[in-house]
Amino acid sequence: MNFKRLNAAIMLGFIITFTISWIGGFMSTCSDIRENVLRIHIIANSDSEADQQLKINVRDAVLAQCPELFSGEENIQAAKAVAAENLEKLEQAAKEQLQKEGKDYTVKAELTNMYFETREYESFTMPAGRYDAVRLVIGEGKGKNWWCVMFPSLCVPAADNGMNHFSKQQQELLESTPKFEPRFAVVEWWESRIVKSEE
Question: 94: closest CA among 109, 79, 112, 114?
């Protein structure tokens, strides 16, 4: 009887150790990704069809500035410095697009740190957590938002392949699909708990 209990305890210990290792390594890779990515976040004035389309047009105008700004940057520190120095230029590109479409909305660009949920794009997935981000708020900022990755250039037109900025392990995680990778749900649950504890 004691031998069976010992075997069960050993097996349970093995399962717990394996699970911690399985989740822990994944969470560590997610953390490394978050520390080396600059997101972009654009909030529409409202959820009206016109304002949502305007958000997309502003997005395109802002992203058109990015290849020139970030083409020579090889690390996140340099990318954030460039973003901070060019917030006015990005804001101006948004304002010019608004004026072109006859809108008198205000627009504000800032460099911030904020929480993002797990997000699946066409060819990659960004894990949940806090990221540095360039955020643009159009008008009252009460509409649905759009967000992606400004640096490395995963959502920005550029000559280089943004994935080259990541390690092989990080690329494998980014190319995972959330519905087939349950660890994304664990990371989102954990990161959301951290955010709530800070509020």
Answer: 109
pLDDT at res. 15: 44
- pTM for this one? 0.79
Cβ–Cβ contacts within 10 Å for residue 145, how many?
A: 14
Tell me, what's the pLDDT at 17? 44
Separation between Cα atoms, residue 124 and residue 55, nearest integer Å: 23
pLDDT at residue 159, as a whole number? 46
| Peptide bond preceding 182 in cis form (omega within 30 of 0) | no
Distance, first Cα to last Cα, the chain: 50
Cα–Cα distance, 185 to 147 (Å, whole number): 19
Distance, in Å, from the CA atom of 132 to the CA atom of 113, rounded to the nearest integer, reads 4
E strands present in 56-118: 107-116
Which of 60, 44, 61, 40 lies closest to 52 in space, CA to CA? 44
User: Running along the chain, 199 residues long, what does each successive block of 10 average in pLDDT?
Assistant: 53 45 75 93 96 95 84 84 94 95 94 92 88 96 91 70 84 82 80 68
Q: SS3 sequence, 121-179?
A: CCCCEECCEEEEEEEEEECCCCCCEEEEEEECCCCCCCCCCHHHHCCHHHHHHHCCCHH
Q: Which helix (H) or strand (E) holds 79?
A: helix 76-85
